[in-house]
């Protein structure tokens, strides 16, 4: 699959690979993430209001403003 320019597009994947994914019936292949956490841990993180985020931008930076403008544009 290394030569596939867009591996996220199922039309570009081998038929066997698509069938194997379809047989999972929409079940996630991962077991981690926020939804799988203990409810108390979720509340602890949620109460921090995004402060636990790694944060890609410094608040108010030009890069953040530009990303916001790009994110608001329709494609």
Report on the structure:
This protein has helices at 15-23, 39-46, 62-72. The mean pLDDT is 74. The chain is 37% helix and 0% strand. The chain has 75 residues and is mainly alpha-helical. It is built from 3 helices and no strands.
State the main characteristics.
mainly alpha; single chain; 75 residues; flat
Q: Could you name the ranges where pLDDT drops below 50 across 5 or more consecutive residues?
A: none
Strand content: under 5%
Structural class: mainly alpha
Helix/strand order: HHH
In round numbers, the mean pLDDT is 74
Describe the sheet with the most strands: none
Give the CA-CA distance, first to last residue: 27 Å
Total DSSP helices:
3
- Rg measurement, Å: 19 Å
> Total strand count, please?
0
Basic shape: flat
Helix content, binned percent: 25-40%
